[in-house]
Amino acid sequence: MNTKPIALGFNIDHIINIRQARLTPYPDIVDVVESVEQAGADAITLHLREDRRHIQDSDVDAVREHCKTRMNLEMAATDEMTQIALKIQPEDCCIVPEKREELTTEGGLDVVGAFERIKNCTQTLTTNNIKVSLFIEPNIEHIKRAVDMGAPVIELHTGHYANYHGDEQSKELEQIAKAADFAHAQGIQVNAGHGLDNINTLAIAALPEIVELNIGHYLVARSVFVGLKQAIEEMKAIFVQARK
Ligand code: PXP
């Protein structure tokens, strides 16, 4: 299993949401990247959505230019996004589903129905030295499809787990644990993310296969009160506590 500490990918979309709410020049994207990295994030995660509701194309260029850790570009498996990724060359790409009307990414990829499209995108990016992660539900059949597509990494969707309570949450956690174990046995790197906060992250970080967690909304909200550095330190302390 992994002996390295869990990496934190900081999703900056919600910082940029503040700028887009008023179309101000602040917060400046370069300041965002530098501050988040100085505060201790291991990767900059950003989602260029088809509707450009937060991250803009110019932000993607700026992150590429100023990111000193790792750039993890979340994108839909479309021709437009594939061309952008090939031009930008992020270290990592996380392929996510996208519906225009959704508030946020609401579930994992349809790796069965959209198999060919996602596979083509995965292979094109992989051939061009981009490490591809597929954002999927904690479902063994879906992991098998990710293996068939040749994806080196999956990101398990923790959104349902985060929204559930009590028994429902425990059952979902069990599914995530089984999925992580199965994927790891197939030689796939296991990341996870969505809806993680100071309470629900502990059990996910305790899963021994987890290599990276991508977290945004909670960390941005927490930073308002304690600053980026402390918010990130607190989250990393949870990662460490979970592995003790
Ligand atoms: N991982 C993926 C694939 C996502 O789409 C998102 C949200 O953009 C996150 C992680 C982070 O989710 P949250 O903002 O709820 O922490």
Write the layout of secondary structure elements.
Blueprint: E1 7-11, H1 13-22, H2 29-38, E2 43-47, H3 57-66, E3 71-75, H4 79-88, E4 92-95, H5 115-127, E5 131-136, H6 140-149, E6 153-157, H7 159-163, H8 166-185, E7 189-193, H9 201-205, E8 210-215, H10 217-242
Parallel strand pairs: 1-2, 1-8, 2-3, 3-4, 4-5, 5-6, 6-7, 7-8
Helix pairs in contact: 2-3, 5-6, 6-8
Bound molecules: pyridoxine-5'-phosphate (PXP).
Residues 11, 13, 47, 74, 94, 96, 104-105, 135, 155, 193-196, 214-218 line the site of pyridoxine-5'-phosphate.
Sheet having the most strands:
8 strands, parallel, barrel
Q: Which molecules other than protein and nucleic acid are bound? A: pyridoxine-5'-phosphate
Q: Which sequence of strands runs across the widest sheet?
A: 1-2-3-4-5-6-7-8
Give the amount of beta strand, in percent: 15-25%
Distance between the termini: 14 Å
Question: Helix and strand succession?
Answer: EHHEHEHEHEHEHHEHEH
Total helix count? Answer: 10
Which regions are unreliable across 5 or more consecutive residues at pLDDT < 50?
none
Shape label: globular
Radius of gyration: 17 Å
Mean pLDDT: 96
Overall SS class: alpha/beta
Overall helicity: 40-55%
Strand element count = 8
